[in-house]
Amino acid sequence: MVNKKRGLILSATVAVLTAVAVTGGGLRFSQSQAFFQDNPKELVDEVWQIINRTYVDVTFNQVDWRAIRQEYLKRPYGDKKEAYKAIREMLERLEDPYTRFMDPEEFKNMQIDTSGELTGVGIQITKDEETNELMVVAPIENTPAFKAGILSKDVITKINGKITKGMDVGDAVKLIRGKPGSEVTLTIRRSAEETDYSLVRARIELNPVRSRSQQTPIGLIGYIRLTQFSSQAGQEMREAIKNLEAEQVNGYILDLRSNPGGLLYSSIEIARMWLDEGKIVSTVNRGGQEEQQRASNRALTDKPLVVLVDGGSASASEILSGALQDHRRAMIVGTQTFGKGLVQSVRGLGDGSGLAVTIAKYLTPNGRDINKQGIDPDVIFELSNDERKALQQDRERIGSFGDPQFNKAFEVLKQQITNSKESNVQAISQ
């Protein structure tokens, strides 16, 4: 669906805070073709036109979009800041947290974020459509937010004491970002309890793939943890699988927990490493037209596979896990995923600002629409609060036998490997 030459931008995804919050199965990036002169009203109309042409819902979420154009073009604009404010107000009428405007600084930061070099506290955020509150998609592993114990689905009620309800995601990003070494305090609500987290901002270098082989009672197995679908994730995943295949592992555990997503083409590329044939994902646009991405008969392994997911597994993570589940290529273990089934196109505007627009929804190979529903694991296994805290305090236990969800994944993988060996024996005997 996405041509790499047009340049994909991180979604969720993006939303990286570093990572900003627009999570997407992937964001498509293209420069605006319209000529933009230094006229604030022209910028307002340019944004309106893009939404009018490409927004996924032809009813614009039951909003009279033509009337909105007349309303905002009648206004006088003294400068770009006034236009930026008006554009954000206009987009809020859609009640879509993933369709958003970025001023030149925000847009530049988003482009930097996709390269894997981030500065901030390391969380992905979005706005809850129902409550109008800022919510954590997931903390990025080994970042200040992760180390402090911030979790997926936490609600950010204040930033440095400023109430966030109704706040634009871009404005929240500006408040949370800052120079490495400086501090920001996030007030987090979890269940009914609020807690202040004082975080020291840092420069964050993302290496999306970690892998290792491990000797177990069923022989050597491969463990791969994928933390983000960044531009380098595909190459790192390919190297990890090839190295583990060279070691002749008997099976794999692929860990997508707290992976907020990222680039759509990255999820497709990685799915092709595990699937030899069949549909990977379908995207459906406003006209109901469906575009499919399929496997390319180039899988790197057919060995048993278990995938770990949780509530922080979003967007591109759900594309990958949904495809593997529908094709019965892997068993999914953990808890229900986040439920982000929308695709955003990110466009550069003439003055250096940018616009993320929801242009399509994506479906799993069996046609499941996972937006807001998520992927239900084949084997549900949830961590207790104490177990989760223990893992955050001792990060070396994540993906090891000191990790209860890993233990469960290993049990499932053990059964898969046993069944695979029995099937091979029967085939030979026949």
User: Cα-atom Rg, whole angstroms?
Assistant: 22 Å
The total count of helices amounts to 11
| Overall number of strands | 21
How many strands, what sense, and barrel or not for the largest sheet?
7 strands, mixed
Domain count, please report it: 3
Structural class: alpha+beta
**What fraction strand?**
25-35%
Give the CATH superfamily of the largest domain.
2-enoyl-CoA Hydratase, Chain A, domain 1
How far apart the termini lie comes to 44 Å
- Uncertain runs: 1-37
Mean pLDDT across residues: 86
Helix content: 25-40%
Structural description of this entry:
- With 430 residues, the protein is an alpha+beta fold.
- It folds into 3 domains: 4-107, 2-Layer Sandwich (Transcription Regulator spoIIAA); 121-204, Roll (Pdz3 Domain); 206-339 and 363-420, 2-enoyl-CoA Hydratase, Chain A, domain 1 (Alpha-Beta Complex).
- It contains 11 helices and 21 strands.
- Strands 1, 2, 3, 15, 16, 19 and 20 form a 7-stranded mixed beta sheet that branches. Strands 5, 6, 7, 8, 9 and 10 form a 6-stranded antiparallel beta sheet that branches. A 6-stranded mixed beta sheet has the order 12-13-14-17-18-21, with helices on both faces.
- It is globular and about 75 Å long.
Concise synopsis of the structure shown:
The chain has 430 residues and is α+β, with helices and mostly antiparallel strands. The protein has eleven helices and 21 strands. It has three domains: 4-107, Transcription Regulator spoIIAA (2-Layer Sandwich); 121-204, PDZ domain (Pdz3 Domain); 206-339 and 363-420, 2-enoyl-CoA Hydratase, Chain A, domain 1 (Alpha-Beta Complex).
